[in-house]
C-alpha cells in the first residue's frame, strides 16, 4: 500500500488541521539493562545453551505498521497506528 508523504490531519498542539510529514516508525535499540534482557542472559548461560525456550511459530503473519506524523507548523510528532499490512510505502 502506498501512503503520501504529506497528510492534512489534526494537530493536538496547534488544535487545528495542518499538514503533517509522514514517515514509518522504526524500532529503537534494545536496552541491555532492561529486566527481561538481564533475565534472558542469566537463563541462557546454563548448559549447552541455545535459546531459553522453544521458539513458537507466530500466529499473525503481519505486524501493524506505525506512522510518525510530524506537524509542519509546530514540529509536534504524533504516532498513529497504521494498518496490518505486509508492505507499506511512503511516496511523494
List keywords for this structure.
elongated; four-stranded antiparallel sheet; mainly beta; two-stranded parallel sheet; Nuclear Transport Factor 2, Chain: A; 92 residues
Task: Provide the fold topology.
Blueprint: E1 2-4, E2 6-11, E3 16-24, H1 35-44, E4 64-71, E5 77-84, E6 89-91
Parallel strand pairs: 1-6
Antiparallel strand pairs: 2-3, 3-4, 4-5
Tally the helices.
1
Which term fits the overall shape? elongated
Give the distance, in angstroms, between the N- and C-terminal Cα atoms.
13 Å
- Gyration radius from CA atoms, angstroms: 19 Å
Provide the structure class.
mainly beta
β-strand percent reads 35-45%
CATH architecture of the domain at 1-26 and 62-92: Roll
* Strand element count: 6
Average per-residue pLDDT, rounded, comes to: 89
Q: Strand count, sense and closure of the main sheet? A: 4 strands, antiparallel
Helix content, binned percent: 10-25%
Fill in the CATH topology of the domain at 1-26 and 62-92: Nuclear Transport Factor 2, Chain: A
H/E element string?
EEEHEEE
Uncertain stretches of 5 or more adjacent residues: none
Question: Can you tell me about this structure?
Answer:
The chain has 92 residues and is mostly beta strands. It has a domain at 1-26 and 62-92: Roll (Nuclear Transport Factor 2, Chain: A), CATH 3.10.450.80. It has one helix spanning 35-44, and strands at residues 2-4, 6-11, 16-24, 64-71, 77-84, 89-91. Strand 4 (64-71) and strand 5 form a beta hairpin. It is elongated, with a radius of gyration of 19 Å.
Amino acid at each position: 500500500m502506498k501512503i503520501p508523504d504529506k497528510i492534512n490531519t489534526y494537530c493536538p498542539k496547534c488544535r487545528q488541521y495542518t499538514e503533517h510529514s509522514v514517515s514509518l516508525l522504526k524500532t529503537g535499540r534494545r536496552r541491555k539493562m532492561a529486566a527481561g534482557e538481564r533475565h534472558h542472559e542469566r537463563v541462557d548461560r546454563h548448559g549447552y545453551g541455545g535459546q531459553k525456550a522453544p521458539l513458537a511459530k507466530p500466529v499473525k503473519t503481519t505486524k501493524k505498521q506505525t506512522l510518525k506524523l510530524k506537524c509542519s507548523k509546530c514540529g509536534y510528532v504524533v504516532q498513529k497506528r497504521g494498518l496490518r499490512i505486509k508492505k507499506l510505502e511512503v511516496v511523494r
